[in-house]
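Researcher: Please predict.
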Amino acid sequence: MTELLSNYVAGRWQAGTGAGSALFDPVLGTELVRVDATGLDLAAAFAFARDSGGGALRAMSYKQRADMLAAVGQVLQSQREAYYEIATANSGTVKNDSAVDIDGGLFTLGHYARLGQGLGEQRHLIDGDSARLGKDPLFQSQHVQVPTRGVALFINAFNFPSWGLWEKAAPALLSGVPVIVKPATATAWLTQRMVQDVVNAGVLPAGSLSVICGSSNGLLDQLQPFDVLSFTGSAETAELIRSHPAVARRSVRVNIEADSLNSALLMPGASAEAVDLLVKEVAREMTVKSGQKCTAIRRVLVPEAQAAQIAQAISARLAKTSVGNPRNESVRMGALVSRAQLQSVQEGLALLKTQAQVLHDGASHALVDADPSVACCVGPTLLGLKDAAASDAAGVVHEHEVFGPVATLVPYRDGAHALALARRGQGSLVASLYGSEPGELARAALELADSHGRVHVISPDVGALHTGHGNVMPQSLHGGPGRAGGGEELGGLRALGFYHRRAAIQASTAVLEPLKPAAT
């Protein structure tokens, strides 16, 4: 029988008491490891994290916790090659795609380590200026933010077992809040191994970081009023979380990232160079991690008169993408993570095809060094709507996300129509704009800002500089309104707000003055 991965809770490694769930290689079909959380004392696990982990973290300054994050980064960097091997085996990703997850996580961790250095020896944050409460300026109000005295529970998605952990854990630990992470079962191995390496290195106080692999049953029942919960996954599961008593009755703070029909929009009258930038980015976003990114481009909004030309250009790029076994150096796109995910993509494609036609057929890609009857591989597929009228009528295209290498070309009549179509996503993580005229791009960006967490504007002057439509940078906000979940993560130091509690201290200026950080 394959190895049963242990959970780390209450300061020690513990194996589940059940047979566990198997994790598979999505290309070869072989069983890799098993995970199980049956029989764990969850109440004790959460109590230990709150008391031992939280107490030790809050006793440290922001700078000390930043140094701790830097030490975590050094541990992970030393084991980087092992993480790539796990990603290839368990996620079926080529090396460049594994880097998005692994190196992206390390970069984000390092970014917050550097940000924390600037906060110095404080143990709380000053929020704004003090304000007088009456005619006499002696009695004033000062808002402060202090770390919540609870635990941060992360229920993460399958597509980013590294980045999904560290983009949340870095601001949580920097804030002084202990973390319990429950990775998605299908790709839990990488998360578990990273936690294991950090724990074994002894760079964090006991109880600061825990990992539970397997079923999430009972986890939400352990949450108390000062805990926080961050969830990444489906809208259906998000609905269940929002109705759970921990959230509905105990007011546990929750951050949710759910479905997102992100769009790329080519501005009317865009230059040939802007068109080329759109074509390149759409093809890249469709194929990176086999389209399994929450931020991937799902709808491509283009002027009706240019739709055929752009479809041909994107299809030509997609045709060059080799699909199959990521161990083969000629392969540029690996597998979906599981048979269940393959079935979901196939069913979603069938649904979209009821309203859109196939412009580039993923089935035309012969798999490289992979058995089609076993491997969870699917070629990139570009769909298209025949005209602007069809773009209005094709409700499924604006409502159903296929979480794989699939995008739909959506023609529009004019600029106002294009913006309206982008908003048909009912709230998205990101939209990207491609054009040449700065004023028009600025106005369009503001028009989309209310319905998107991030607007990525690509003009020829930044064609070689931009960070990518789907790349989540720690300096910028990650999240989105509406169907995207209504959550906010990252955004530099803004991320710390989720793990702090804001309060107003009303007192004499003599009392308030020591609360403010010393001048440097």
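Model: Residues 235 and 375 are 28 Å apart (CA to CA).
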